[in-house]
Amino acid sequence: LIICFLLLSPIFAIKNIEVIGNKTVTSNYIISSTDTLYGENILRMNKFNVIDKINSLPSIEETNIKRKWPDSLVIIVKEKEVITHIACYVLSLCQVRIFQSLIRIL
Q: Is the pTM of this model over 0.90?
């Protein structure tokens, strides 16, 4: 009976979500990537599924989640370095140019 109360009680429904560590990605974008956390019971929330969803964002490197009882979450993210994005872009441009050069030669 107590367990049912805890799992169904609106006291533990998530009402506040704070995102820390984001610089280029907005908090709303990060929160929206997790589907709907607002209103979900903090005890039933699968922390690892939420972390996986946030980590699947292209600019997020690492995520951690802390529960703040009774109805809040703190999402801590580490963004990928911008230099990594630039390096990947430059590398892909170089690969395209090399491929174009090979096609001209053949």
A: no
